Amino acid sequence: MPLTKLVTAIHNIDKETLKEIEESFALATGMGVVFTDAQGTHLGEGSNFCSFCNAIHGHEGGLNCCFASNRLAALRALKQKKPYIFQCHAGLIDIIIPIIIDDKFVGTVMAGQVRCSDFEDGDFPSIGEKDYNMPWFNTDRFKEMRQETMMIPKQRIIAAAKSLFMLANYIVDKNVKEALEKELLQKQDILFQQEKKRTVLEHSLRFAKLSAMQNQVDPHFMFNILSSIIRLLELEEYDSAQNILETFTKMLRYSLHNKTNLVTLEQELNYIEKYLYLQNFRFGERVKFLIDIDDSLKNLMLPFFSLQIFVENSIIHGLEPLDREGIVQILGRESDNYYTITIEDNGAGMDDEQMERFFTNIKKSPLTNDKHLSTDTHYGLANTIERLKLHFEDAFTYHVESTKNIGTKIIIKIYKKHLASSTI
Questions:
Q1: Of 110, 126, 152, which marks where a domain is finished?
Q2: Within 13 Å and on the Cβ side, how many CA atoms surround 352?
Q3: How far apart, in whole angstroms, are the C-alpha atoms of residue 296 and residue 334?
Q4: What is the model's pTM?
Q5: Domain containing 396: what range?
Q6: pLDDT score of 3 more than 50
Q7: Most buried one in 33, 73, 275, 313, CB count within 10 A?
Q8: Residue 369 DSSP one-character state
Q9: Which three-class secondary structure state does DSSP give residue 239?
Q10: Is 174 exposed, middle or buried, given 0-12, 13-18 or 19+ CB atoms closer than 10 A?
């Protein structure tokens, strides 16, 4: 992937998305946050900059010192390809997160502007000397503002750096690749019209759109996980925080780096188990999860990420509104004629009117109607059902049962007589 395209694409990322990441991370950690391109130019105004740093930036000499130390820190972060935590020229703790896509350095996330409550010599390297020769720097006003900057523990700074590294690289990688894939789809569409091979080429376009929209992870879910990690660190529950971070990292790697169109049911369920494990930290004992799959189904091949949206739908629309105990079950059974996968919850359910609206929305195919290319739940369900139909063809059917205040059940059947030998 050409570097010029990557640099251009990072400037085209939705600024609201970057702003939401900055503000959510700032709210969870208390740190200042800003994205930059590869040259160090800010992609927006940033979030939660402290008064001390804003005051320094108001002086040309101070701003130049900040740029110089940040450039040096960015080079060190890029060399080690991981977060670099350091003391800036003003003695505050800062973090530089390198954003690397296809082995190309395309920008950074800068965070910090805090002091460390349990700092020891040698913890974080110092970049640049404190410039006390500048009269504005050594005034009582600046000394007071520096003393007012946030003080947080070393362990929390390190955990924040790891979390932001995973989050920022995942979001930017996804957005950049989606922008490039969108451009590719547009060029393909022009070619398809010119060649007038509608049947075969439109079928290819369907799969191209599926590939472009396949990797979806709800950013709000990621922000919740980040907040959970920070909260556990504040409670000094370091083992739990480490477990969440490791599980979350494995989820992101699976969703970001899985290059195959198909996975086994067992692989898909391994991802879902990690997702449900993280949801347990959010709901606690109020929500329970059960996965029970016959061994004969575990090698069933199905489209990547094709069950996750059903589980998310059960949690978001079924269990979140409840003030009572909820449960989500994923069951897999084999009979003489077909395999059955059932996703069931005892949540809010739907009445007849909601069911009718539900089916109307998911029948609006995201592959044939560009107006429905969004990331809401109905789009995700429509996208998933379309991919299952394309993969299993005549072997696939699904059925939805729902009762208000009782729950919802989605039953997927894969008929053996129509099943291609390569799918299991």
A1: 152
A2: 0
A3: 7
A4: 0.56
A5: 284-424
A6: no
A7: 33
A8: -
A9: helix
A10: buried
